[in-house]
Amino acid sequence: MRLYRQEWDWSWDELNKRVVDEIAGLRSFGREGREHVPGAIEITIRVASGSVATVEQFAADPEFRAQIEAGLLNRLNRIPRHALPEIALGVVADNLDRIDVKEGTLAAPARLRLRPRDGDDGAWSAVEYSLPAAQRLFAVGRGRWHGADDRLRNDVALPAEARFVSRRAAQLTRKGRYLEVATRDQGKHLTVEWNEEWARPARVAASGVLVGIGGAIHLDGIQASDRLTLEVLADDDAQEVS
Asked: For a tag site, which of 22, 67, 108, 163 has the least CB within 10 Å?
């Protein structure tokens, strides 16, 4: 926490810089000088001399948050974009201008939601699949089983009506606040959408493609209309299904 003099000018740029400074102050260094920051950070901006309403507007503006991210990428140049922390911003009135920062609770993918589909060539209703926190690997495929003699269970059993989806379509690996998506028999007909970027696990050299909360996994077929989409959710975004 840094204390600032009274009558501080709480302008957009100054406040953004202060927040970046606070977060960068939490970094640590591991082996070979690698930089690390907590996966989740809670920031409380305490305002004495400025307008609380104005600062609240700043904190709620997506562009303000995007500028924080850009500043962190510039300051923490050894940390990739996907490893930046989740940031919770709060604003309160106080008798002294200051910014409090602490490690927060990390939100991790907890469920997948199947988007519903209508049509004569295959239809299904919305379904949600639980991703237990204690489980690391999840098999994704059409139907309950895959493999020789159908003896291997799919953790995420997709509708039988989705004929364009393989019985052994993909594997998900829990990686902290992300899921690593690796294609299996679905091959190139699997894409990951996250942070306005699209990637095909079959075309990357790594073991898979990361996706976080708010992202989506698309399984496609040969026909343009063939698409099944799984949305990645946190616990508080999900709804119970039978």
From this structure: 163
Global pTM value: 0.64
Kindly report the number of other CB atoms within 10 A of residue 150's CB atom.
12
Residue 199 one-letter amino acid = A
Question: Whole-angstrom Cα distance, residue 57 to residue 67?
Answer: 14
Three-state DSSP at 49 gives coil
Go through the domains of the chain in sequence order and give each one's CATH number: 2-103 (no CATH), 111-237 (2.60.200.20)
**Distance from C-alpha of 123 to C-alpha of 89, rounded to nearest angstrom:** 41
Task: Give the CB-side neighbour count of residue 174, counting CA atoms within 13 A.
Answer: 17
CA–CA distance, 126 with 11 (Å, rounded to integer): 45
Give residue-wise pLDDT tens across range 173-183: 998 788 999 99
Q: Six-digit token pair at 154?
A: 């799919």
User: Looking at residue 241, what is its pLDDT?
Assistant: 35
Question: Does residue 13 contact residue 64 with C-beta atoms inside 8 Å?
Answer: no
> In a 10 Å sphere around its CB, with 0-12 CB exposed, 13-18 middle and 19+ buried, how is residue 93 labelled?
exposed
